[in-house]
Write a structure and sequence with these properties.
- The structure holds 2 protein chains of 2 kinds.
- Chain A is about 0% helix and about 50% strand.
- By secondary structure, chain A is mainly beta.
- In chain A, the strands form 3 sheets. In chain A, strands 2, 5, 6, 10, 11 and 12 form a 6-stranded mixed sheet that branches. Chain A has a 4-stranded antiparallel sheet with strand order 3-9-8-7, with no helix packed on it. Chain A has a two-stranded antiparallel ribbon with strand order 1-4.
- In chain A, strand 5 and strand 6 (about 45-50) form a beta hairpin.
- Chain B is mainly beta.
- In chain B, the strands form 2 sheets. In chain B, strands 2, 4, 5, 6, 9, 10 and 11 form a 7-stranded mixed sheet that branches. A 4-stranded antiparallel sheet of chain B has the order 1-3-8-7, with no helix packed on it.
- Chain B starts with a strand and ends with a strand.
- The model of chain B has no long low-confidence stretch (mean pLDDT about 95).
- The chains are: A mainly beta, B mainly beta.
- The interface of A and B includes residues 32, 34, 43, 46 and 49 of A.
Chain lengths: ~110, ~110
């Protein structure tokens, strides 16, 4: 069965530091992968997606993610974090024939001044 | 990206009553979904809203408790029936496109007293 694991529940980084949020997936075929961000009191916003092709995908607001099939990973990165990036981040995989998105448990990012 | 609107944005309801949440999507959307997000948790899919027919419910969710309508391609409602405090959650509507992305509404924050 498809699944998504986000090993880090909470992460704190200093403003201006780099960020990497981990995501591991389990899926039999080539996955369609997504990262979403949820700011406090808001819905989910799509940051980026991977379907095929170049394994390094660029998203909005300076985020990028790298698909590594050998590691079943799709980690999210940002070179320099801003205080406004404090939010919860969800990784998701498209469930194929079920037409469902399967979400990880989320990583809550705090940004220190 | 698709535009998803949802109302009400929040409500406080008494035990035993029902609340109907409305979701409007733009024309890029082919599928509509309803999710529940309990405090501090990830998203749980309640059902896929099908146009003109009964919704497809996930395990643990039943039509009597969460009746869903989708009278046309761009509109759906979710009713939370006979509410109890355990139904206090954020309820999110999403629209899925032909390229498998899902876009989310801002959510409805429900508190049951």
């Amino acid at each position: 069965a498809q699944s998504v694991t986000q090993p880090d529940i909470h992460i704190t980084v200093s403003e201006g530091a780099s960020l990497e949020l981990r995501c591991n997936y389990s899926y039999g075929a080539t996955p369609y992968l997504f990262w979403y961000v949820q700011s406090p009191g808001q819905g989910l916003q799509l940051l980026l997606k991977y379907f095929s092709g170049d394994t390094l995908v660029q998203g909005i607001e300076g985020f990028e993610a790298e698909f590594k099939r050998s590691q079943s990973s799709f980690n999210l990165r940002k070179p320099s974090v801003h205080w406004s990036d404090a939010a919860e981040y969800f990784c998701a995989v498209y469930g194929g024939a079920t037409n469902k998105l399967i979400f990880g448990t989320g990583t809550l990012l705090a940004v220190q001044p | 990206s698709a535009v998803i609107s949802q109302k009400p944005s929040r409500d406080i309801c008494q035990r035993g009553t029902s609340l109907t949440i409305q979701c409007q999507v733009d024309s890029q959307v082919t599928m509509m979904f309803w999710y529940r997000q309990q405090p501090g948790q990830s998203l749980t899919l309640i059902a896929t809203a099908n146009q003109g027919s009964e919704a497809t419910y996930e395990s643990g969710f039943v039509i009597d408790k969460f009746p869903i309508s989708r009278p046309n391609l761009t509109f759906s409602t979710l009713t939370v029936s006979n509410m109890s405090p355990e139904d206090s959650s954020i309820y999110l509507c999403s629209g899925g496109t032909a390229t498998y992305e899902q876009y989310f509404g801002p959510g409805t924050r429900l508190t049951v007293t």
